[in-house]
Predict the structure.
Amino acid sequence: MRDCWITGGATFDLAPTAWKTIAGGASPDEQERRLLAIAAQALDVALRPAAPKTLRRRPPLPRLALPMLPERLRPLLRAALKHAVDARRKTRVVTLVASRGFVLHPMDWMPVASDQNSPDVYAPWIDWQASVEGERHAPQEKLTAENWDEFYPAARRIALAEMRRSGPASARLLVEAKASGEPAEVRLALIELMRFGLNPEDAPFLKSLSADRSGKVRELAGRLLARLGEHGRSNDGGPDDPAAELAAFISEGKSGFIRRRSIYTPAKLKSPAQEKRRAELFETCNLVDLAARFSATEPEFIGAWQFGADNNADMLIARMVAASGSDAAVTHMADALVADGGKPALFVLHLTPRLDSRRNRALVRLILKQANYLNAINLAEGIDAGWLEWDDLSNGSALAALRSAVAGNDDAMRRGADDILETIGFLATATTAAKLIDEVVAAGMPPAAPSLSVLRLNAALAEHQSRTDT
Amino acid sequence: MEFDLKIIEALAPDQASLSAASKLTKRSNWPRLEKNEQQALIWGECQGSGSNPYRVVVDRGDHGYKCTCPSRKFPCKHTLALMWIAATAPASFAAAESSPEWVNDWLGRRRKTTPPPAQPIEGAAAKSIDEAARTDESAAVEDVAAVERREAAQRKRAEDTRQAVSAALDELDQWIADQLRLGLSGFVDGSSDRCRRIAARLVDMKATALAGRIDEIPSRLMALRSEERPDAAIRELGKLVLLAKAWRSAPDDPELKRLVSTSETREQVLANPDARRVESFWEVLGEKIESRRDGLVSHSTWLLDLKSATPQFAVLLDYFPASAGRRSNAFAPGDRFDARLVFYPSRKPLRALVAERMGEVTSGAWPDFSFGTAKDPLAGHASYQDAAPWITDCPLMLPPGAILVDDRGTGWWQAADDPQGIALPIAGAVNQTLLGLDLAATAALWDGARLDLLAAQSGFGRLDLS
């Protein structure tokens, strides 16, 4: 009957007898309509959809180690996530919530399978996202060469990072034993973990990677070696030596009347082609090799670099220090620039992922105090959540600048203030967040403005904690 | 800045708005009236002529306002009524510590402008708040003869409508027979034009509701895979045949009249002593806002009765013109309230009106519906179909289960204790996270081919799926 209706035509003769009894005794059109009505009802109540045999079930979503954000706070969280325009900002909201001891509801936010920036507590979800089929691993077990394959990548990465912090040698041995069997992408992520607790004992293994199949792995190993003070290339000074070519873009001079000391200034460039080449060289060369061209140590070279002379060159060297500078060079540069203040201090923002929490906080405090480049605070990476006190905000000019931006009519300034408030929402303690909301509302911001959403969430998280404490 | 009646008079777009507003100043029209002194805001929910309440917020500082009603008058009567209550009975507003999300949402999107002068504007002299109040008080007195004339005219109009609809259904019957003769394959391919043409004829012949339903058939067919469309066409057209037959046998049946021509008014439903009334705690399962081909937007809010031992549902259904712009949602999924609902009379009452709202209810899990050992998750659907076989979408409460995917990426719901049994395909894309969650109970709509998820309870709490 169905096929007949599809192609067109009368189906009465094809109908079951019982149906014919109901449909019969009428005009041919009416008979068809009656059969159609019976068929419709039969389709609806008597038949069930045929389930394909290929139905697959995902493993259950694991429970995380922290409690779920209370239901009451979920609207605030969703508002904060909605306002956070990109993955990086969303991760900041997630980090803030985790720093207060909660995880998000999986329908509000889920990390993607490739996520490497969300708090460690989400590792089981990252692995769940990455897994297609398979059994769950036992995350309590210690990672060993034997149970290596039972760990999903995110759990393995976190276990290894933890091992690198507590016993770097055993973690290195594990990576040495297992990395070569992994695909290049995974290998790169594993080698990247060597940055935790990097020490001279890692050098032989890193050197062995110079023969790795992947160019990215070779480059990363070279940078890690450079951080240990190992020269990556032979300094023959020949035309093929990029450090020598880069050195030619830098002028060495002397400064001081009594104690003459070397200073390094970027040479004036004559063309965009030169600019491009210099940028490439800064990206490919290691700091230790460049410093050696001037017979200086890394801290000496950084100490003698004339920040402020060429903005682009300053940015390039900051990136170079972040990528390949030794820990001493990184901290030397950060301490010196933060102590001097001014615009050059902003180049320390490139170093924040490698700085300890104390130095990162000092940088944020400086930016807030100076307030000339408040927007730069949005660029800071790898900084802890929830520590910024009210004094840090009120000591300098930040608060006044924010108030005036909020109260003013300049749309660009207001948008800038919105971004800063979002970042401070992440950095601030709950008390600071609550006070700042009052402050900007008094300055004219609508109390329910979306740009206050992270601050509101921050403040509410503490309220919740104090309620549960009492 | 507080309200006085002069300001309201000045803001009103015309005298008619003021008169309409005066009728809405009764406290019973406003299940919710709140204020926040700090933010200088007042807001409320007004039970207007629609099923879903209108949400109104007014900034007392600069007289900015927002109402979710589709009126093209600014401010609308609901806004004026809220201001009026604020001016004359400020104690009606309960103090709220914080403003609800929908108010925050409006504030967030709002562009602050300089306060408009709430001074009498040109033409304002033509409006008088005193007159509006008087209009309210003076009930029109009609003489007996006029009443009889009006009733006679009404009867004649009803008879004319009945005849027109009867003719419309004859035409529909013929059209269905034509589709069967020409083949459903061609119908599926050309359903857009064919349905539009017959729908236009039905509108002309006063079968407006039926026309709207036929206009939606193409989009319902296109939402399915091509191999499923012929069966869906059989279902859709077969149901139309059943509905037409049912109407012919009982043209005054309120349910059939509603589905074929026009619906009763809110007042008629409220005044109907036969209409089922249920006072209970209700949870908003979810909302569906769909643009229709006839230029209307249908806005349905699905509710679950939290006091019933078996799953009982209600839907608040409104239509408004798409040209009125996007409306804010009337409720947030998961909202709970204590209310008396009045159901539109029908064989399986679903469509309802909120007659009275008594307040909010704290959130929590759903009642423990004992799903029994019935293996058929569509048993509820079959019971709706037995009573009213013309219904297309039936609400269901599905037993414990999970969402699975097939190799085309389509999601399927399947009962937990019946892994080899029935699976129901899910409409639209499925959130991948759902695939890892065990669902203790799932509320959904079943249209005969697809499951439209509304909400679920899981180990991770309530899931909003609408």
About this structure: Chain B has a mean pLDDT of 86. The first strand of chain B starts at residue 32 and ends at 36.
